[in-house]
Design goal:
- The protein is mainly α.
- It contains 8 helices and no strands.
- Helix 4 packs across helix 5 and helix 5 runs antiparallel to helix 6.
- The longest helix is centred in the middle third of the chain and has 18 residues.
Length: 166
């Protein structure tokens, strides 16, 4: 990701002088290292410069890495016949689609799926009643209400929300 991040800085001139040569160098390094977004960006660069065949090759590699936009662009390229069938055939598209799906399936995990779910507060723990301690049932209910109210106030924002906390 370091090369890709540097490429973006050089492309946009943020914190460094804008430099297309260094942008392209770091973008290629990131792509060689297997960064799908870098491959996708290289495809865009090649396409803008009239090198559609090279752009398609970069899109195929990005799709093989599971890049969503790359497979969508390949679908468009194929449907519109933007390059010759000798460059990107029906079989090439089918192979790219299979590789894309394999990459997406390999990236799935229970932990990833859990992380993608929207945040919801956990159910509040119930205060155990009884057990002595000299508290009456009414006092126990008052204490439970107080603790529940305090927990609700604490749990009104999801972790890492934009309320200034670390």
């Amino acid at each position: 990701d370091g090369h890709y991040n540097l490429a973006i800085l050089y492309r946009e001139g943020k914190g460094v002088e804008k430099n297309d040569e260094k942008y392209l160098y770091h973008l290629e390094e990131a792509a060689i290292a297997g960064q799908a977004e870098a491959r996708h960006d290289l495809a865009n660069y090649e396409g803008r410069n009239g090198r559609k065949e090279r752009a398609v090759r970069h899109l195929i590699i990005a799709a093989n890495l599971g890049h969503d936009m790359a497979i969508k662009k390949l679908q468009f390229v194929y449907a519109e016949g933007m390059v010759g069938k000798d460059v990107f055939s029906k079989e090439d598209f089918a192979a790219a689609l299979r590789a894309y799906q394999t990459a997406v399936n390999e990236a799935k995990s229970p932990q990833r799926e859990e992380a993608e779910k929207p945040w919801q507060p956990k159910p509040l723990d119930r205060i155990k009643r009884g057990g002595g301690g000299g508290k009456s049932s009414k006092q126990g209910k008052q204490l439970e209400k107080k603790v529940t109210t305090q927990k609700l106030k604490k749990n009104t924002h999801p972790p890492n929300s934009n309320r200034g906390d670390f």
